[in-house]
Amino acid sequence: MAMSTPKLKRLRRRKPGDLGQLRAVLWGMLLEAEAIAQDGAQDVHARLKAISALATTAGAYLKATEQGDLEARLQALEQALQQPRAMKKVLL
Questions:
Q1: 36, 47 in Cβ contact below 8 A?
Q2: Quick check: 26 and 50 in contact, CB under 8 A?
Q3: Which of 10, 19, 58, 70 has the fewest CB atoms found within 10 Å of its own CB?
Q4: Nearest one of 76, 65, 70 to 20, comparing CA atoms
Q5: DSSP string for residues in the chain
Q6: How far apart are CA 26 and CA 59, in angstroms?
Q7: How far apart, in whole angstroms, are the C-alpha atoms of residue 53 and residue 29?
Q8: Residues near 39 by Cβ (< 8 Å), separated by ≥ 6?
Q9: C-alpha–C-alpha distance, residues 26 and 32, integer Å
Q10: Model pTM?
Q11: How buried is 1 (Cβ within 10 angstroms: 0-12 exposed, 13-18 middle, 19+ buried)?
C-alpha cells in the first residue's frame, strides 16, 4: 500500500493594485479609524490607538496622493516632449 502525500493547495495571489485602489483602501481605513476615535463609548485606550492609526494612515494617504500627482505631471511632461518641435516652441 503506497502512502499518498497530501496535495498542497496553490495560493492565488491578487494582481498588484494601482495608486487609485491604494488610496481607496486607505480612505476607508481613515474613515473607520476616525469613527472609532470619535466614539465616546470606546475606552480611552482604544480611542488613543485609533488616533494613532488615523495619523499613520493619513501620512500614507498623503504620500499616495502626492505620488499620484507626480505621476500625472510626469506623464504630461513626457507627452509634451513627444510633440513635434513646433509645438514645443509654443509651449515654451
A1: yes
A2: no
A3: 10
A4: 65
A5: -PPPPPPPPPPP-PPP--HHHHHHHHHHHHHHHHHHHH-TTS-HHHHHHHHHHHHHHHHHHHHHHHHHHHHHHHHHHHHHHHS-HHHHHHH-
A6: 10
A7: 9
A8: 47
A9: 10
A10: 0.66
A11: exposed
Cell numbers for 4, please give them: 499518498
Q: Which three cell numbers stand for residue 20?
A: 487609485
Q: What residue type is assigned to position 80 of the chain?
A: A
Q: In this structure, what C-alpha cell is assigned to residue 74?
A: 510626469
- Count, residues in the chain: 92
C-alpha cell at 21: 485602489
